[in-house]
Amino acid sequence: MKIKAVIFDMDGTLFDTERLLSECFIEASAKEGWTLEWDTIISCIGTTYEETERLLMKAMGKDFPYEKIRRMSIDLFRRHAEKNGIPFKSGVLRLLNCLNDRKIPMGLATTTKRSEVVELLTAAGIIDNFASIVCGDEVENNKPHPEIYYKVAKNLGFKAEDILVFEDSSHGIISAAAAGARVVWVPDLQHIDDAVRSKCYSEIGSLDAVCDRLGELIG
Fold it and tell me: Strand, coil or helix: what is 135?
């Protein structure tokens, strides 16, 4: 089957932001006198803001100042990004160029809020690559529900079955696969169990490696 369009997840797929955001959340927690374990924050990858809060409050207890620490962590992240730039995952710019050369339309499906998505993509200089961007605050049911992928596919003018998706998280893979898209897992920080991995069309170590197999992937 020939692929007609591509949809990317953002954090952990296009940008190496999951690691940086997690480190900033741990740092902000420490500033407030809390020890947040790496495995605890990693368990929140690919979830909504509300689900992240629920998971952390369950792990840390009712006195954990989640909202204050979240704001502090975002401030730490922005300061790092202003100083060092937005951290791309390996191969992002190369793959975007390859897809543009082949005239493959691209979309973005992310649980992150629209305002933050626009800020990141604009700062990174890649926002114009995406013909459709659907964000976490623009759907009723977020990942792992397939709604966000149905919506991006519709905006691009194709059925989800005609689309190749790049994802790094369990929730993202489940969402895209449930919509009927062909999913490529590009591993980041989160362990994916065998049941979720079985939903993937392929597993490729980096977007840089994807470029070398692009013809095979899109048909």
Answer: coil
Instruction: State how far the alpha carbon of 179 is from the alpha carbons of 19, 37, 64, 121, 142, in Å.
Output: 28, 33, 36, 25, 12
Domain 5-16+88-218 has CATH 3.10.290.10: no
Domain boundaries, the chain: 5-16+88-218, 17-84
pTM for the full predicted model: 0.88
**Which tens digit of pLDDT belongs to each residue from 124-177?**
999 999 999 999 999 999 999 999 999 999 999 999 999 999 999 999 999 999
- Structure tokens given for 104: 């493959």
Tell me if 135 sits within 8 A of 149, measured CB to CB.
no
From residue 65, how far is each of 12, 20, 50, 60, 116 by CA, in Å? 26, 20, 14, 10, 22
